[in-house]
Amino acid sequence: DAKTTQPTSMDCAEGRAANLPCNHSTISGNEYVYWYRQIHSQGPQYIIHGLKNNETNEMASLIITEDRKSSTLILPHATLRDTAVYYCIVRWETSGSRLTFGEGTQLTVNP
Amino acid sequence: EPEVTQTPSHQVTQMGQEVILRCVPISNHLYFYWYRQILGQKVEFLVSFYNNEISEKSEIFDDQFSVERPDGSNFTLKIRSTKLEDSAMYFCASKSGGETQYFGPGTRLLVL
């Protein structure tokens, strides 16, 4: 799986959009970008994933650059409950394969 | 919405004792996983299980660890003789044929 680089921490004001960047410059053509988050030692929670195209669901949007070397997770209207560690994970789409977590980005949403 | 459940939420044990952590994966899921997170550290993969056998394991998953799916619903992680360094949060995850793994709330294991 390709290595990812994320900022250690970010702050965001409540109600504003939170934009979390991830660099994955060594990503290969068959690797997907996944985002999970972990709220204070709870189990990691799946947010969204994508291959090439931008994706949106009820939680977030994922913007992947055309060269696929970086991506941004967007939480459109951050709330205090979005305070968490956000993990960007790049992995092959092969059944059964493990998730490899890095350090992630600690997002703090401030009132 | 279906979810992965884990019991107990907390477990305190003496060093050298055996512990069994239990998980009920999401119904109809086929792939099962255990991860752990030592306090202040990253989430680490331990083992994956599919079709009633281990499909992948990490270097952490040594002979002291075993997994089992004793019936159609439970998925267990057994640590035969616990060590102080086994103290961690243990997360179970499951997935269907798709690629998204869904995690349980975890069991906090404290070895004294």
Report Rg of chain B: 13 Å
Distance between the termini of chain B: 37 Å
Major sheet strand order of chain A: 1-9-8-3-4
> How far from one another are the termini of chain A?
37 Å
- Give a count of the beta strands of chain B, DSSP E runs of length 2 or more: 11
Largest sheet of chain A: 5 strands, mixed
Shape of chain B: globular
The two chains with the largest interface, and their residue counts, are:
A-B, 20 and 26 residues
Strand-residue proportion of chain A = over 45%
Secondary structure tally, helices of chain B: 0
Unreliable parts of chain B: none
Proportion of β residues of chain B?
over 45%
What percent of residues of chain B adopt helix (DSSP H or I)?
under 10%
* Global structural class of chain B: mainly beta
Task: Work out the helicity level of chain A.
Answer: under 10%
Uncertain regions of chain A: pLDDT < 50 for 5+ in a row?
none
Mean of all residue-level pLDDT scores of chain A = 93
Word description of this protein:
The complex is a heterodimer of chains A (111) and B (112). Chain A has 111 residues and is mainly beta. Helix content of chain A is 0%, strand content 47%. Chain A has a five-stranded mixed beta sheet with strand order 1-9-8-3-4, with no helix packed on it. In chain A, strand 6 and strand 7 form a beta hairpin. The N and C termini of chain A lie far apart (37 Å). The relative contact order of chain A is 0.34. Chain B contains no helices and eleven strands. Chain B has strands at 5-7, 10-13, 19-24, 31-37, 43-50, 53-57, 65-68, 75-79, 88-95, 102-103, 107-111. In chain B, the strands form two sheets. In chain B, strands 2, 4, 5, 6, 9, 10 and 11 form a seven-stranded mixed beta sheet that branches. In chain B, strands 1-3-8-7 form a four-stranded antiparallel beta sheet, with no helix packed on it. Chain B is globular, with a radius of gyration of 13 Å. The mean pLDDT of chain B is 94. The interface between A and B is medium-sized, with 20 and 26 residues.
